[in-house]
Write a structure and sequence with these properties.
- This protein is mostly helical.
- The protein has one domain.
- The chain has three helices and no strands.
Length: about 70
Amino acid sequence: MDGTKKLGGRGAYVCRSESCIHKAFKVPKRINVSLRAQLTSSVITQLERTLLEGARTSTNSTEKKEELS
């Protein structure tokens, strides 16, 4: 994953909401088509978990900001 968007190679955008991530990974073939690559099922699973963790962290940060306001 390239959060800086500066690495070379293929990329795909998935919004940071859990529902978008679940939808993107519902059919593993969709990720392979988007990236024009053949990722193994274990790599796809790991990528999905990483994105979900990021979405949860992002949601928690937003909730904390709202509490402080």
